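Let us work through a complete example step by step.
Step 1: write down the sequence.
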Amino acid sequence: MNRTIWTSIGASLVGAALLAGPAAAQDAIRIGVTQPLTGAFAASGNYVAQGAKIAEDEINRAGGVLGRKIQLIIEDNKSNPTEAVGTVEKLIGKDKVPVLIGAWSSTLTLAVMPKLMEYGVPMVVETSSSGKITTAGNPWIFRISPTSAMEAKAFQPLVAKMGMKKASFLYTNNDFGIGSGAEYAAMLKANGVTIGVMETMDPNATDFSAQLAKIKAEGADTLFVTTAVEQLTLILKQAKEQQLKVRIVSCGGSNSPDQLIAQAGDAANGSFHTTFFPPWFPEVTTNPAASKSYMDEWKKRGHNVGGLTEGYRGYDGVYVAVAGIRAAGKADPEAIRAALWGVTVKGVYGNIQFTKQGPAGKESGQNVPTVYLVTIANGKVEKTSF
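Step 2: predict the structure and record it as tokens.
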């Protein structure tokens, strides 16, 4: 029977942000959410928003927080940095939210970070992986997703087990892809793997024939791909068309294997994918009860099962924001920022808590989740056998 590599990259603490007490008939506490609901990252952004709505409803059914209900104000950043900045200005300036969740892509998150500093409002970063986000000296950032460096470190024990000798890369030409490629390449090189070609692609590109031809000519045994699920689907299809005989590993955790199976068909077989939540094997997660609650409600609402590996980011993001509000004792941005350092939330990501990263006195908060590796075989997601 196959054995799963469940690579733990951080210790966990026990505890949860409990929400109790009836919600009074006061104005709801607003929480701002900025996600790519349209544009290149729309599939992932909509899944995150759906997960966030599940958490909103669960929390309100349980009585809300501080005797009040919560209300998500969800804005579409259109997968565009300029639009993302506009959503944050609207959420803070008009909607007066005391805490934000966003903004999916590293490029989008980096774009809005100066506004957090300007207005003094904390943001729970649910997906973005660029190391720059938590090392830039922005004390209003609290990231629950892992950095690319954390992910690469977690993958390191598998390099020898997978027999890697030479690896090439294909990644989006943005902060997400560039950061992932750099961290994985450095880790592989340090472990004796020869680095082949490192190809980039525009986030909106649909034709990868030129890059795949170069990768095929290079003759590496493994290809690391970092992009959103829309492009990954096309890459798998086009790699099969070009008869690319290489093991494909997708990085970043935003790969939605079920969606790949549905849309790429047998071209997805044999591919490997990092993920930070394995809905196919929820029993191995740190908090099975949280995983089950999230999954049950997701399926009850008829959401695409392929989105389970993205929706939990929004789900946990809302619970963390509410934990900060509850610990602060009021819906005040500075009080929430201070309180977030002390919360521990039993989430789908694991036991979420924050350690300090960045310049002294201006540290950002960084959670340390678990990284999992799964593979697709015969049209099904399976545990890896390494």
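Step 3: interpret the result. The first helix runs from residue 42 to 61.
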